[in-house]
Amino acid sequence: MIVSLKRDADPAFVLRALVSRGLWVSHIEHGTSGGPLHYVIAPHSAAASLDELTAIEGISSVTTAKSTTPLVDRQGPVVEIKGARIGFAPPAFICGPCSVESEEHAHLFASRLAPLGVAFLRGGAYKPRTSPYAFQGHGEVALGWLRRAADAAGMRVITEALSEADVPAVAEHADVIQIGSRNMHNYALLKGVGKTGRPALLKRGMAATLDEWIQAGEHLLASGARSVIFCERGIRSFDDATRNLLDLGAVALLAHVHRFPVIVDPSHGAGRRDLILPLSRAALAAGAAGLMIETHDDPPRALSDGPQAVPLGEMGALIRALRPGGAS
Ligand code: PEP
Ligand code: MN
User: Fold this and answer.
1) Beta strand pairing status for 2-5 and 36-41?
2) Which of 12, 27, 162, 319 has its CA 20 to 30 A from that of 199?
3) Measured in angstroms, how far is the CA atom of residue 98 from the centroid of ligand 2?
């Protein structure tokens, strides 16, 4: 976006007016007399409308490039799901086990997490596993367990649709449909999820560029999804010290420059529970609007992802530490 100034404009006034609207001025072009001619604003900013910018005293015109992701750009930074907000402070918490293991198990998490202010219950009914011999999830029956547990505790459900065939059942039970990392490029699935009209949580593909990720979000909105929340969960790197490389630069870019609703999943990002607190803090500092954290009442016995699960009994202290003004 290029903002051109009038000859008699007060550049300091215009700059203040832009910055106070949360816009990032990335470049200033000066005229021959030394005064600024143009301010170039980071693209896709949903912070201020064109009419609002043109009305600022001293601005003569505002020029925008045509975006390839107009629906994502227009969405704005806040998404609301059944009265719970994802966007800005306080952070939204999406917590639960990696896999939904039984109905009692789902109720245990909901009853323990809801009093901590966790608005979203997560858990996989359909699990994408590297090995075909690993636990694959209980499937459709687990969707009902999750729904009933969330309803009993006044929570919202986020769960993954692994294939197009799962979409109708997941849409019937979930408030937000999760697209897993391995499926970010599965355009048929994105369209199928979009058609349900449900909000979608779009995990970043483990080797996806930001552009591919954002365009996948556009696929969802273009096919009818009510909203899209981006979730950074780590990308592949050369180093196996952590399960993935949590890309917080991407989070800052999406949150502050693009102003998209973005959350972070430090559980899959790190793959180890001892890094959840510091990575969660870093994620919030980078601009994440929420955190997806895996927990388990008995991590060594978890049917999937035990090493990264925070013990359920430690979730209260973790969440308190992550709230604004939380203990260090
Ligand atoms: C999950 O959140 O349960 C999951 C499988 O995550 P990812 O798609 O990021 O690996
Ligand atoms: Mn998991």
Assistant:
1) antiparallel
2) 319
3) 4
Mutate to test the pocket of ligand 1, among 163, 263, 268 (most ligand atoms within 8 A of CB): 268
Can you say whether the dihedral through the CA atoms of 265, 271, 276, 279 is positive or negative?
Answer: negative
Render pLDDT for 217-227 as a digit per residue (tens, 0 to 9): 999 999 999 99
Residue 133: CA atoms inside 13 Å, Cβ hemisphere, count?
0
pLDDT at residue 196, as a whole number: 98
Atom of ligand 1 nearest to the CA of 99: 3
Residue-wise pLDDT for 229-243, tens only, equals 999 999 999 999 999
| CB of 128 sitting under 6 A from ligand 1 | yes
Ligand 1: atom nearest CA of 268 is: 9
Got the DSSP string for 59-70? EEEEE-PPPS-H
Task: Please state the pTM of the whole predicted model.
Answer: 0.89
> Which stretch of DSSP H or E encloses residue 28?
strand 25-30
Tell me whether the omega of the peptide bond preceding residue 90 falls within 30 degrees of 0, making it cis. Answer: yes
pLDDT digits (tens, 9 = 90+) for 64-96: 878 889 999 999 999 999 999 999 789 999 999
Pocket of ligand 1, candidates 122, 203, 229: which has the most ligand atoms within 8 Å of its Cβ, to mutate? 203
Q: Is pLDDT at 36 greater than 60 in this prediction?
A: yes
Q: How far apart are CA 46 and CA 25, in angstroms?
A: 14
Nearest-atom index, ligand 1, CA of 128: 5
